[in-house]
């Protein structure tokens, strides 16, 4: 097992090298002069030369790539052109916001999705089944930005019960330790801040959870229907076990594998920064950060962030693969 | 005479499907005494398994339903019991071993977990006590190296070993009745013999009754005291095993006997019963076996016969023997 994990980690290296080449090339794939496209039409030749020098664009590609890699390995992700801040520092602020939102959305999606899927399967063709599967169909079909805007309109504008944007009300004091606000507020026992943060995360969390929740519910249902027909479920009934245990232990553990695959992929996508959701709700996360960087042609940010997101994505996939073994002992790693 | 442990009276289990009502079990009666083995024989779809599932109250509903009849177990009608009461009987009083050991154990739990949970579902014992008993049971059914084996998953066992595990699990709460649904069908012949031997040994040690569902008359001859022959959902003949082999009456039973391959050099062709079992949704009028029967009479196509007593402890559902019935009555 440990050997497998180490080998998988080693296999990440070529993947990450590939990603680094692609992100590195990004800046050179811009048609024309990258320096000009970053600074705009009105920049003077002297300014352009200065930026080229700063970004090292005058060196050969190989030297540039070598510098790019060695910087990253030292934890230096470069400097933002616009804010002149270290990108590593800025990401350290943004990443927890995205991770917190993604985790919140994912937990919501898993709990509700799996539960709805299981009940739909056990009560196949019941009103609950029809209702939740119709709901799931809507969930995967609704454009998320539209849903987000509608929720803001309903809960923030009409009823005024939930805040439309941000992570926390300005003025609420919170001592940050991990930069995960929900955790920080709990750690410091700051209930006022906890409530405020929870209110802020609710709308973007639900918006973000909608699609994964719908997919998980449908996947759980079909997988459970398959498993409930199996011989070992009949055996479990014949042994006189309680229905609840048969469904949630014997059946669900078997049915969970395809669901786990979906969860892994969806979670990876969410962590990549939900650009639309974060933008709509002004969530100060990675998605919005990249979005603003693209608009401002701040290429160093785009490069570094893509690299980080890719690394997170492959890491989540590895985690999913390891979890497979827990759910199905027949899986062998070699 | 010992009182019956299980007595099934006129059981009717039907499945209500879109394409019609399937009479999976259609008037089946029999009884089993403690310590005895009853064989239920018949082709696929003759209603053997559904009879067993009816006893345990595990008919998938909808579409299935026990329409009428009585299932008396230790004098109490199981059909009148609540789901909770039935759950306490399943796995404790009446347990079951299924046909395919490869798929009947849950693949994602260890043998230990599956055995311990069965014991703890019925008895208030600690995990450790349940574990100790599981070890004993596995040892009893002939699993080698139990301490190591119990920690393993089903896929690490062979088919024969898995069936032993199934049997150990079925025996874990000392049931008074064990229903074995084709327990040897999916196994190699040599393993079959071992498993049958194991059933006999367990029965001797625990004095439980066994209902052995099979389509293999060899198995019947090997382990059963009495036999019930089923055809198209109906019981067609019931008697002692020896009586059935020596003096079987029903044309279907006779057909089954003849279709056993014999080791005789000049036999060129295997005897078969011509035709196929009827579609249970569109049963023929009269006797269900009539379309395939060698001795079919005109009456058979109109009248469905009842179970008729032909001698002490020997009943047959066939018009050929109706006369005898009248004789017995007189």
Automatic annotation (TrEMBL), chain A:
It holds the Pfam family BPD_transp_1_N. The chain crosses the membrane at residues 9-30, 101-122, 134-155, 201-220, 255-281, 301-324. This is Peptide ABC transporter permease. Keywords: Cell membrane, Membrane, Transmembrane, Transmembrane helix, Transport. GO terms for cellular component: plasma membrane. The keyword Signal does not apply. InterPro entries: BPD_transp_1_N, MetI-like, MetI-like_sf. GO terms for biological process: transmembrane transport. Residues 95-320 form the ABC transmembrane type-1 domain. It comes from Cerasibacillus quisquiliarum. It is found in: Cell membrane. It is a multi-pass membrane protein. Belongs to the binding-protein-dependent transport system permease family. Its main location: membrane. It comes from the Bacteria.
TrEMBL record, chain B:
The keyword Nucleotide-binding applies. Residues 8-257 form the ABC transporter domain. Keywords: ATP-binding, Cell membrane, Membrane, Nucleotide-binding, Transport. One of its GO terms (molecular function) is ATP binding. One of its GO terms (biological process) is peptide transport. It is a peripheral membrane protein. The keyword Transport applies. One of its GO terms (cellular component) is plasma membrane. SMART domains: AAA. InterPro entries: AAA+_ATPase, ABC_Ni/Peptide_Import, ABC_transporter-like_ATP-bd, ABC_transporter-like_CS, Oligopep_ABC_C, P-loop_NTPase. It comes from the Bacteria. CDD domains: ABC_NikE_OppD_transporters. It is found in: Cell membrane. Pfam families: ABC_tran, oligo_HPY. PANTHER family: DIPEPTIDE TRANSPORT ATP-BINDING PROTEIN DPPD, OLIGOPEPTIDE TRANSPORT ATP-BINDING PROTEIN APPD. Belongs to the ABC transporter superfamily. This is ABC transporter ATP-binding protein. It comes from Cerasibacillus quisquiliarum.
């Amino acid at each position: 097992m440990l050997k497998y994990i180490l080998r998988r980690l080693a296999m990440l290296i070529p993947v990450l090298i590939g990603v680094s080449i692609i992100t590195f090339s990004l800046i050179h794939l811009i048609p024309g002069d990258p320096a000009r496209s970053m600074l705009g039409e009105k920049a003077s030749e002297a300014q352009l030369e200065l930026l080229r020098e700063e970004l090292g664009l005058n060196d050969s590609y190989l030297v540039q790539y070598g510098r790019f890699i060695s910087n990253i390995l030292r934890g230096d992700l470069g400097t933002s052109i616009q804010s002149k801040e270290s990108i590593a520092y800025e990401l350290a602020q943004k990443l927890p916001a995205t991770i917190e939102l993604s985790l919140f959305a994912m937990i919501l999606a898993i709990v509700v999705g799996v539960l709805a899927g299981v009940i739909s399967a056990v009560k196949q063709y019941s009103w609950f089944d029809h209702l939740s599967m119709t709901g799931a169909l809507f969930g995967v079909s609704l454009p998320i930005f539209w849903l987000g805007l509608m929720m803001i309109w309903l809960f923030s504008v009409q009823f005024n019960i939930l805040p439309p944007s941000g992570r926390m009300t300005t003025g609420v004091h919170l001592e940050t330790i991990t930069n995960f606000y929900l955790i920080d507020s709990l750690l410091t026992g700051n209930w006022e801040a906890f409530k405020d943060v929870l209110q802020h995360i609710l709308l973007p969390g639900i918006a973000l959870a909608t699609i994964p929740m719908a997919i998980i519910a449908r996947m759980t249902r079909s997988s459970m229907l398959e498993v409930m027909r199996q011989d070992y479920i009949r055996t479990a009934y014949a042994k006189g076990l309680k229905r609840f245990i048969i469904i949630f232990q014997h059946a669900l553990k078997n049915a969970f594998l395809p669901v786990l695959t979906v969860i892994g992929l969806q979670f990876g996508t969410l962590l990549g920064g939900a650009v639309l959701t974060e933008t709509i709700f002004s969530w100060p996360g990675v998605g919005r950060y990249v979005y603003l960087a693209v608009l401002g042609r701040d290429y160093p940010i785009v490069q570094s962030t893509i690299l980080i997101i890719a690394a997170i994505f492959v890491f989540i996939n590895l985690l999913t693969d390891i979890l497979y073994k827990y759910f199905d002992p027949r899986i062998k790693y070699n | 005479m010992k009182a019956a442990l299980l007595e099934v009276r006129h059981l009717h289990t039907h499945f209500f499907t879109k394409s019609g009502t399937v009479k999976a079990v259609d008037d089946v009666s029999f009884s089993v005494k403690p310590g005895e083995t009853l064989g239920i024989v018949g082709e696929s779809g003759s209603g053997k398994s559904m009879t067993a599932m009816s006893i345990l109250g595990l008919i998938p509903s909808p579409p299935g339903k026990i329409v009428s009849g009585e299932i008396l177990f230790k004098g109490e009608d199981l059909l009148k019991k609540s789901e909770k009461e039935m759950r306490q009987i399943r796995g404790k009083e009446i347990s079951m071993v299924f046909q395919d050991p490869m798929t009947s154990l849950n693949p994602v739990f260890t043998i230990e977990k599956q055995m311990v949970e069965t014991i703890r579902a019925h008895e208030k014992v600690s995990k450790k006590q349940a574990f100790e008993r599981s070890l004993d049971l596995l040892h009893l059914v002939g699993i080698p190296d139990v301490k190591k084996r119990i920690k393993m998953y089903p896929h690490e066992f062979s088919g024969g070993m898995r069936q032993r595990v199934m049997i150990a699990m079925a025996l874990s709460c000392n049931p008074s009745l064990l229903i074995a649904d084709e327990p040897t069908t999916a196994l190699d012949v040599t393993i079959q013999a071992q498993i049958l031997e194991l059933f006999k040994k367990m029965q001797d040690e625990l004095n439980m009754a066994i209902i052995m569902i099979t389509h293999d008359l060899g198995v019947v001859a090997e382990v059963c005291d009495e036999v019930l022959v089923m055809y198209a959902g109906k019981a067609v003949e019931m008697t002692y095993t020896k009586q059935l082999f020596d003096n079987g009456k029903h044309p279907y039973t006779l057909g089954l006997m003849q279709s056993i391959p014999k080791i005789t050099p000049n036999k060129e062709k295997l005897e078969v019963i011509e035709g196929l079992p009827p579609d249970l949704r569109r049963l023929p009028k009269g006797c269900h076996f009539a379309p395939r029967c060698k001795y079919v009479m005109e009456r058979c196509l109109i009248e469905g016969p009842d179970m008729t007593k032909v001698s002490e402890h020997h009943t047959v559902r066939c018009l050929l023997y109706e006369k005898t019935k009248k004789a017995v009555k007189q």
